[in-house]
């Protein structure tokens, strides 16, 4: 059952399709793009912050390393590390201890946040500015591990962390001491920095809701702040490049804390959109009631008491069109009655037309038998050919017929013409037997053969030849009708082949009807093509679709054989 559509439904549907849905999609795309843009801005800002923090850390460690280098490169310090026995307490050890502390105090103690500065030889013996805790002592005296780390860092200074028993950690800048004369490592120098110094260096540019880490070259964490924030959703993590000390600065910030204000603005916009939607539907209801009242007054005047004149121009136009259509409907009914009467007359004419050919066939058959009784075989053969030809022209078996039957029609026609012209026309058919079952539009070859006889060869003289051949290509079934007559004049042939759809210049040569018949039945891509040489004859090439059963090829679209 067909759905009854209303103006109100149409108005609501139009508003939904052309207003609400586009606006919602626009809002959704704005929300998504704003979120993406916000994340990009945060990432860009964090990259800048991380880069600046990395530079600050790098500069801070560089200044310390420079001070450590002054101590480690001192000749006397290097002699102490190579010669002084830390296990033998004597004046030499005392003087060595005092000298190293003096060098450290002169170059390194000016830095804030220094917990301890340690100079040690490769056997674990050390000199320090303060008490060395057990966890740090274990690190210093693990000489095998130190040698491995020196190898891994290729003798460069690196940064690591030392953890105490109460889980407190300190950053340690480690610098190998190299014997400048023998090019070998003779000791280590450790610069222990407390966490508060790193707090002041790293946290000054960060918000309370941001996390920060300092990683060593193995990815291990040597400093962290607000570590629990990394478990929150929507964290944007940014890393700096690894500096010359193998350290990497990592920050994490939540997109949500930046997006709350944006989310509130988007929700406000959505609420305004919802309010506007309600107002639009109220307006639609009001407009519908006004229009429906006017239309109801036109369609049901008996309910309103009298026919009311509308104040809306469009509805007046509808009323006028309705009255016009009613008038045309009355006129149409009268015409239908006349057409019915006319159809009855045409049916009688059609029945009469079916009777007339039947009468003609019977009459010609009677003449044929009279000719045979009087031993006039040629006349009998002519009448037989004529009857077959007439039956073919009034064919009721379908528009497409087998190629074999179409060739039979041509033979009957040639039989009649050769009787007239005393057999002067040499007619040949050169078609493989396997092609005879293909179907072609009926009566397309006879007009072309007739064309050859009356416009090409001279049938009153001997020597005229007509040949019909056929073959199959990718284009379809190709039929050719060739004669050895006068051919077409060159200007006529050029005009004929240049005419649109090969129709305009084909009238006088019997080709237009064949061309139109093929293209109507098979499609515009099929038809005839004419070539000719003056005084050597003409060739008409027909291109047809490959059809074995009538209607089995879509090239015959648009034609109904019924």
UniProtKB/TrEMBL annotation:
Transmembrane segments: 267-288
Record's protein name: Sensor histidine kinase
Domain Signal transduction histidine kinase internal region residue range list: 347-422
Keywords from the named record: Kinase, Membrane, Transferase, Transmembrane, Transmembrane helix
Any one cellular-component term (Gene Ontology): membrane
Molecular functions (GO terms): phosphorelay sensor kinase activity
Domain Histidine kinase/HSP90-like ATPase: residue ranges: 444-546
InterPro entries: Bact_2-comp_sensor_kinase, HATPase_C_sf, HATPase_dom, Sig_transdc_His_kin_internal
Ligase found in the keyword field: no
Statement: the UniProt record of this protein carries the keyword Transcription regulation: no
